[in-house]
Every structure is written in C-alpha cells, then in structure tokens.
Amino acid sequence: MLPYLTDPQITRFHTRVKSVVEEKDRVMVSLQKSYFYPEGGGQPSDQGTLNGKPVLRVFTEGEEIWHELEAFSGLTINMPVEGIIDPEKRRDHSVQHTAQHLFTAVLKDGFGVETVAFHLGEQYTTIDTDREVEEEVLTAAEKRVNDLIGEDLPVSVYIRDKWNLGSLPLRKATDLATNIRIVQIGEVDYCACGGTHVSSLKDLRLFRVMQSEKHKGGSRLYFLAGNRAFRYLRDMEDTVRLLQKEVQVNVDELPFRVVRLREERDEYRKMVQELTARLGVALAQGYTEDTVVQEVDFEDELMKAVGLEMNRRKKVAVFYRPDGRIFLFTGEAKDARKIFESLKARFALRGGGSRSLVQGILEKPEEMGSLISQVYSALLDLEI
Ligand SMILES: [Zn+2]
How remote is the CA of residue 382 from the centroid of ligand 1, in Å? Predict the structure, then answer.
C-alpha cells in the first residue's frame, strides 16, 4: 500500500534515491520510500521538493511512485534525499476532495443525482452529473452541504477486504478484493477512495457552488470549499464594490441600475442613429455639384448617411479620411465595385461592397493623394 495512504500526516521525510531516468528536459526519480500523493482519481499530485528541487508531477507505474523534476536535478542513485510536501497544497486538495465526497453524497441521497466524473483543478473543482441539475436543487444541495459542515461530522479512513465489507453502504461498488480504503463521513457517505481527505468536516469551513453549465446531457458543476470559497467571495465583493463606486448606488439597487443603464444606452444609440440620418440629409443638401470627391472628418456612419442621401439625389460621392478610410457612393451612375477592383490592382486596399456602394481601407494612407486622382479618372471614364 502506498505510504501516503497510511501516513497522510507526513509531509517531510528522509529516504534514498532508488532510480533515475533522464529524459529530454525532465528527469524521473523514484525513491526507496515516498509519501507524495501521485495524481489519480481526478486529483492532481502533491507539490513539493526533493533536496530543494521542485517536484513538478508525481505519478505511479504499477507500485512505483515517480517524481518528475527538471533536468540536471543533481540526484543520483542511492543519494540521501529529503522530501518535503507542500502542506498548504496538500491541505487545499484534501479540502476540495472531501467537499466533493460530501456534495456527491448530498446530490445522490437528497436529489437522486449521480456524479459521473470529478476533476480537481488548481482554480476550482468540477463534478459532472448524469442529468441536468436545476438551480433550486443546487441552492438546496449547497445549503445541505454547509449544514453538514456545521455539524462537524468526523471523516474516518479504514481498510477492509472484500469479505469483511459487511453491510457498509458504499456509494459506488469497488472491484478491489483486498486493501479497500474506505473513507467515511459521519453516517452520510461511505466511499472506497485512494485520495487525500481532511479528518473533520469543520476543515471545509464553507462550500460554494460557483456555476453550472450543460455538459453531455447532464451538468458540469463548479464548486469551491475552504480558503478557496472565502477568496472567491472576497473577489466577488471587490468586484461589486468597484461597480457600486462606478454607478453610485447601494448593492441591492445595483441590478436595477445596470438594467436602466443598458436601456439608456439603447435609447441614446437610437437617438444618435436618427440624428446622424438627419445630419446626413442636411449635409448632402449643401453639395451642389453632381460629383463630389472630398476629404472629410466624419465617422463611418455619418459618411454613409451623407453618401446615401447624395445617391438618392442622383449624385455621386467619394469621401475619404486621412486615416485611410474611403467610401465610394456611385448610386446607379457607375459600378463602384468595378472601380474599386481596378484600384485594388494598384494600391494596398482592403474592403468591398455592392455595385452602388463600396467601403475600404487604404493600408498606406500616405498614398491617398494618388489613389484619389485615379478615382477622378475612373469617374470620368478615363482609362486607369
Ligand atoms: Zn476521496
């Protein structure tokens, strides 16, 4: 049985190097005895050091525990080694993992929802369920988990063999015959598991479901426990406080204010569209010539409003800006696309449009002068 299973409290130990396998930019090291938790069952491995060198990953091959380190670790066969497991990381993983046991048990017993997958990440933990979980169920399950944390149920770990499992109501059947490690939470959950766990539910402190999303016919539920949950709430509070400062209302008024701001934005947007159209008509009225080619400082929308109004008055307009933006409004008089294609052959132009309207960008705005003289030629039907 792997050492971490029987002595999960050991986070510092002395041993010797058993074997070293050099790879391209990594080295794999096995030890005579290691208390590191190797990745598996949805839980990432422990982090820590061997003689001060960071352990990047720990995994098993059969009964062997391998520690992955960066190349040139300086570790050689039979060398004495001090292994240090990052206790904070171990504790954090144990908290999230125990929370998963509890959440899974509550969902199953209280709401008939089965957990089909589990993943413990560095930011959050997820479980996947066999069916979609409604918001009310999530709220109720979250409350139930926090109530159980409040009851501070003990978490006990013991070993059984197949023939003395007795009547233990295991959450999931196991294929193992011997050395079955049972993790029991009060009378709430009995689970065969090789992960790391806390010894009492009070260590979870707080449980929070962050979000849920549809996943393969069920739900993927994101949750946090312990310090992660407190950190999450603090971050949320900071965000809310920032928003509050920005829009100057109390927290309970915040959602209404945001809705109102969006409505106002839509109203202003509509108003700007209307005013732009009216301004376009007014500006178009100012041009007396049949063909206008002019540098302007209008935004795109206003260029369009003026140009389209010019076309409506059977006039042709070409507007351009110093930044390289150009609009050709030919209406029915000319084929704007054809002119644009001939310009594209000579200039670095991007864009396109219809027979009566083309918009583009000249990638080298300094060439606008010579481009415009070509436009004149095209409008006058000269060869270009
Ligand atoms: Zn477990």
Answer: 82
Handedness of CA 326, 331, 333, 339 (dihedral sign): positive
CA 230 to centroid of ligand 1, rounded, Å: 22
295 contacts 321 by C-beta, under 8 angstroms: yes
Ligand 1 centroid–CA 194 distance in Å is 6
Please give the pLDDT value at position 384.
42
Question: Ligand 1 center to residue 272 CA distance, Å?
Answer: 59
Structural contact between residues 305 and 277, judged by C-beta atoms closer than 8 angstroms = yes
Ligand 1 center–CA 52 separation, angstroms: 29
pTM > 0.90: no
Task: Report the separation in Å between the CA atom of 100 and the middle of ligand 1, taken as the mean of its atom positions.
Answer: 8
CATH code for the structural domain at 91-234: 3.30.980.10
235 C-alpha vs ligand 1 centroid, how far in Å? 28
CA of 63 to the centre of ligand 1 (A): 19
Domain segments of the chain as ranges: 3-85, 91-234, 272-379
For the record, the structure tokens of 55 come out as: 């352990």
The whole-number mean pLDDT for each consecutive block of 10 residues of the chain, a chain of 384 residues, reads: 86 97 94 95 93 96 94 93 96 97 97 96 95 97 98 94 89 89 96 93 97 97 97 95 92 93 97 96 94 94 95 95 96 92 94 95 96 91 54
User: What is the distance in A from the centroid of ligand 1 to the CA of 228?
Assistant: 18
Provide the b/e sequence for 115-142 (b: ≥16 CB within 10 Å).
beebebeeebbbbbbbeebeeebbeebb
Q: Is 350 exposed, middle or buried (0-12, 13-18, 19+ CB in 10 A)?
A: exposed
Residues lying with their CB under 5 A of ligand 1, a single-atom ion: 193, 195
CATH number of 272-379: 3.10.310.40
Domain spanning 3-85, CATH class: mainly beta
C-alpha span between 74 and 79 (Å, rounded)? 10
Query: Which runs of consecutive H residues, i.e. helices, occur in the chain?
Result: 3-6, 87-111, 135-150, 227-247, 254-285, 300-312, 336-344, 368-379
